[in-house]
Amino acid sequence: MPLRAVVAVVEDDTSSRKTLLRVLRAGGFDAREYTSAEHYLASPPRPSPVGLLLDMNLGGMSGLELQKRLQTSGSTVPVIVITGRDDPRTEEESWRLGCRAYLHKPCDASAILDILRSLPE
After folding, report:
1. Residue 37, exposed/middle/buried by CB under 10 A (0-12, 13-18, 19+)?
2. Quick check: 37 and 65 in contact, CB under 8 A?
3. Which residues are CB-contacts of 87 (< 8 A; sequence separation ≥ 6)?
4. Which residues contact 19 (CB under 8 A, 6 or more apart)?
5. Dihedral sign, CA of 14, 52, 62, 64?
6. pLDDT in tens, 4-16
7. Closest CA to 8 of 94, 98, 70
8. What is the torsional sign of CA 35, 57, 45, 15?
């Protein structure tokens, strides 16, 4: 049985996180959940994920700050932002930092899976 590709989900809202985990698992991914940016930094998934679904509005460190830290550390994990806020400055900064997609909640499950499946493993 082949190993399933790991996708990390950093989302502090329980309902949103559980929905994303169900979508990813149903789509054939090994979904790992993180309730905060700090939680992700303290115990990043192994093997390295093929993608990181990242909420921008987290308690504590923001998703944008996590994205900056990952870039500074040389991480090559593709970031897919999923946010409920419409903030053009944050979106622009996230694109500048190299996000692969910037989605607004609620977002279509098939769009998330299509983006992840288009990423190199």
Report:
1. buried
2. yes
3. 56
4. none
5. negative
6. 899 999 999 999 9
7. 70
8. positive
Which residues share a beta bridge with 64?
A: none
Cα torsion angle, 34, 18, 27, 91, sign = negative
Is residue 9 left, alpha or beta, with left meaning phi > 0 and alpha meaning psi from -120 to 50? beta
Q: Phi and psi at residue 84, in whole multiples of 5°?
A: -95, -10
By CB neighbour count within 10 A (0-12 exposed, 13-18 middle, 19+ buried), where does 115 fall?
Answer: middle
Phi and psi at residue 55, to the nearest 5°: -80, 145
- Provide, for the chain, the percentages of residues in helix, strand and coil under a 3-state DSSP scheme, each rounded to the nearest 5: 40, 20, 40
**Which bin fits 60, alpha (ψ -120 to 50), beta or left (φ > 0)?**
left
Rg, the chain, Cα only: 13
**4-55 pLDDT tens trace:** 899 999 999 999 999 999 999 999 999 999 999 999 999 999 889 999 999 9
